[in-house]
Amino acid sequence: LPEQEAFDIEYWWLEEAKLQRSPPPKPLAGKVALVTGGAGGIGRAIARRVLAEGACVVLVDIDQGALATVTAELAQAHGPDHVRGLQCDVTSEASVIAAFRHAALEFGGLDIAVSNAGIAAAAPLEDTSIELWNHSQGVLATGYFLVGREAFRLMKAQGAGGSIVVIASKNGMVASPQASAYCAAKAAEIQLSRSFALEGAPWGIRSNVVNPDAVIRGSRIWSGKWSAERAAANKIAEQDLEAFYRDRSMLKRSVLPEDIAEAAYFFAAERLSAKSTGNILNVDAGNLAAFTR
Ligand code: NAD
User: Which of UniProt's keywords are assigned here (predicted)?
Assistant: First the structure.
């Protein structure tokens, strides 16, 4: 071609040629994730996030009714072949072992385990009953121990590494008014995650923590007694709680379930966090870094 003509050529045909390319595989394609507390606000958001990146998801929850609703909703959005719901009480060793076995048999293994099931109960220290203490430790610390240990056993047997993520809390780092049992249980989760990281490392199993600050929208915790207790402890009206947490943060932004899901996805995806284990990611709009007022 003459030189000028070569410059004038239009590459209209390239768009058509590009269509022949297959799309890049999704980061979690072929991966299997189990999410405890999957019927709750944060668990549902995490499940949606990893499903969108190509994973198959097993939702685990004690609340069968809520679990059925969320499982059906996600199956409709992402395809029934990608989602399962299993009732399980994370405080029961037998129940947790059975759930992991079911999940691995259903989808052919397990790569990601997110320990997110939780409750929140508050009381002034002097009124904290042994029942409230034991319940908090049972669902949070023991629940995460059982979930993490089972994930570890399965991932080790599978021999392909894996990622364990716990949704702990800002309250595992700093004390909150009238929440001693909850804070202690969340601190136990954070420390336990480091032990999982240490013992999992030789097998390529990573373990990390996501610490949310108050996530009010979508959370079932905040639709119950906890809300009234937090409002009383902070001397504000219940309807002002979201604004209260937002305004005292550095970024002046509310933390949403989707923000926690993004952080959990970061630790779940080998492509994003292959070199991160024993880590903590605070999703707190800056609340833990400084007193802003
Ligand atoms: P949520 O109440 O909406 O969801 C929690 C889910 O856990 C519920 O569906 C509940 O049925 C389930 N669950 C409770 N006990 C269980 C058990 N024994 N076995 C199995 N499932 C059980 O609450 P959320 O706001 O989505 O909280 C999720 C996690 O995030 C919890 O661990 C919570 O402590 C943590 N967190 C939440 C906030 C927040 O402000 N929402 C802040 C910090 C940490």
Answer: Oxidoreductase
Q: What is the DSSP letter of 23?
A: P
Least confident of 6-15, 62-71, 260-269: 6-15
Residue 182: active-site member: yes
Band the pLDDT of 8: cuts 50, 70, 90: low
Indicate the angle between helix axes 257-268 and 41-52, nearest 10 degrees. 50
CB atoms within 10 A of CB 248: 17
> What is the spatial distance between Cα 262 and Cα 251, in angstroms, rounded to a whole number?
18
The dihedral region occupied by 30, where left means phi > 0, alpha psi between -120 and 50, and beta the remainder, is: left
Q: Residue 116 Cα, ligand 1 centroid: separation in angstroms?
A: 6
The full length of the chain comes to 293
Residue 6 has pLDDT above 70, yes or no: no
> Which residue's CA is the nearest one to ligand 1's atom 4?
40
Measured distance CA(70)–CA(85) in Å, rounded: 8
For 281, list phi and psi in degrees, rounded to 5: -115, 110
183 alpha carbon – ligand 1 mean position (Å): 14
Q: Is the CB of 148 under 6 A from ligand 1?
A: no
**Model confidence over 161-182: pLDDT tens digits?**
999 999 999 999 999 989 999 9
CA of 221 to the centre of ligand 1 (A): 7
* More confident: 231 or 201: 201
Query: What are the phi and psi torsion angles at 184 (to 5°)?
Result: -65, -40
Q: Is the CB of 214 under 6 A from ligand 1?
A: yes
Structure tokens at 78: 């992402």
3-state secondary structure of 6: helix
CA distance 293 to 285: 15
> Under a CB-based contact definition with an 8 Å cutoff, are residues 267 and 210 in contact?
yes
Q: How confident is the model at residue 1 (pLDDT cuts 50, 70, 90)?
A: low
| Residue with CA at minimum distance from ligand 1 atom 36 | 169
